[in-house]
Amino acid sequence: MHDGSRRLVAVVDDDDAVRDSLQFLLEIAGFSVASYGSAAQFLREAPIADLSCLVVDQHMPELTGLQLVARLRGAGVDLPVALITGSPSADLLRQAGELDVARVMEKPLDDDALMDFIERAGD
Amino acid sequence: MAMQQTQPGIQAPLLASESALLRSILETVPDAMIVIDEAAVVRFFSSAAERLFGYAADEVRGNNVRMLMPAPYREQHDSYIARYHRTGERRIIGIGRIVVGQRKDGSTFPMELSVGEANQSGQRLFTGFVRDLTERQQTERRLHELQDGLLHVARVRSMGQMAAALAHELNQPLTATANYARAALRLLGAAEPDLERVRQAMEHAVDQTRRSGEIIRRLRSFVTRDAVARRPENITKLIEEASGLALVGAKESGVKVLISMDPNLPQVEVDRVQVQQVLLNLIRNAMESMEHSPVRELAVAASMHDGHVLIEVSDTGIGIAQEIADKLFQPFVTTKPDGMGIGLAISRTIIEAHGGRLWAESNPNGGSVFRFTLPAI
Question: Is B260 on the interface with A (CB under 8 A)?
Fold first, then answer.
């Protein structure tokens, strides 16, 4: 369906319903999805080399979305990242910019913006 | 530094005097200081350390530092050091921690330990500064007791925080619902829609709207909890506690606070936490409204009025703008740049659920007065 469908989209969100619904939506849109309930689980289990992009929630216990991105960047991983948040403060946007986060998306998500991000990342 | 005296050569006399100077300075440091080597053997034990642990320096020097620790640290300390040598991973060096020490008489005490590392002729030395926390922890415990008595701090969060938490919690099922609905729309857009998957998506969406409803119900029951949580309360004490808490956290300075209460107030049957939330909210609003006022006077008063206790919170702040006076108690009406506009709406709901009334007036001296009543028992 897409060029991007051959590579994996990773979803990291601690809220089961948000995570499952995102996986459902993205799979119906033709993407392969691997989802993780925490940043730690992602770091432990994700096949980072096979990912086309990462969609991650900011507001998580222990490691936040941005902290996860910082770790990835620190390890030299330049994966395109979309950060999901309920409250995109100026400070958050600044930090996201510094970590080269491609999109900061506010909940509830804008379907078109999300698909656009993933398709671009898959190119 | 404790090693300098062992340096050979012509510089030795100079180093020895430097060492003496250093030592005399260290003797005046109020924190106990202990220097150990790579094998955890104590090389230096300051006089403050002697006083703190009850050992003479001679009894400790040359021995493993673990003698200053209670079990199980006593048994584990060598492995901590070995692990550090092996991995270089710092668990305490340069970080500082609160740990437990053991005195010569076997008694234990809380201490704050900061450890620094030095390299002396290829040998690693670790310098530990120890601060006795016995007193400090006692102080903190008293403070906690006071706060617990003052209020259940965790429950009496400001209404703004409550609103922010609610917004976050509601956003989750709303996001999930929207995702499932969009998935269903995508499925329906196909030439031959997979209706079984559409059904799945819609079932999930319905579940998530149900979850949203649960959150709303929880909030409503929190705000208008039934009479179960109501008890006869001493209104004077309740007001004093709430005022104390509201003023403790206040950053605004130069506010003159006047609390006046009729000495013969009857008891009221209320949910203490809820009524204190209302007071906290009114007092915080009053403080904020006076931020830029030349005269800053906050008055909290309680008196009897027609079988009700009447409570007033008045300020000399910016007052109530005419255009919002009528809708002051409607949700999402606010004059604050970062306000949610729900504090007064919730406050009024709480007071009315108690059989009272809450209203606002202009203060004749400038500023505003908020009044509410509670039925006396």
Answer: no
Cβ neighbours, 10 Å, residue A90: 7
pLDDT-based confidence at residue B358 (cuts at 50, 70, 90): very high
Full residue range of the structural domain in which residue A27 is found: 3-122
Mutation site, A14, A27, A28, A60, interface B, largest B CB count within 10 A: A28
Tens-digit pLDDT profile for residues B232-257: 998 988 887 777 767 654 544 577 77
B180–A15 C-beta distance less than 8 A: no
Please state the domain count of chain A: 1
CATH of residue A88's domain is 3.40.50.2300
* Distance of residue B183 Cα from the nearest chain A Cα, in angstroms: 5
Looking up tokens 């008890």, which residue turns up? B231
Distances (CA, A) of B364 to B258, B367, B369: 17, 8, 9
Tens-digit pLDDT profile for residues B26-80: 666 667 889 998 889 999 898 889 988 999 999 999 999 999 988 777 877 888 8
Cα separation values, B96 from B91, B114, B211, Å: 9, 4, 44
Nearest to B175 among A18, A24, A29 (CB): A18
Please indicate whether, in this complex, the C-beta atoms of A107 and B208 are within 8 angstroms of each other: no
Strand A32-36, strand A8-12: pairing: parallel
**Closest residue by Cα to residue B270 from B227, B300, B324, B220:** B227
Closest CB to B201 among A17, A22, A24: A24
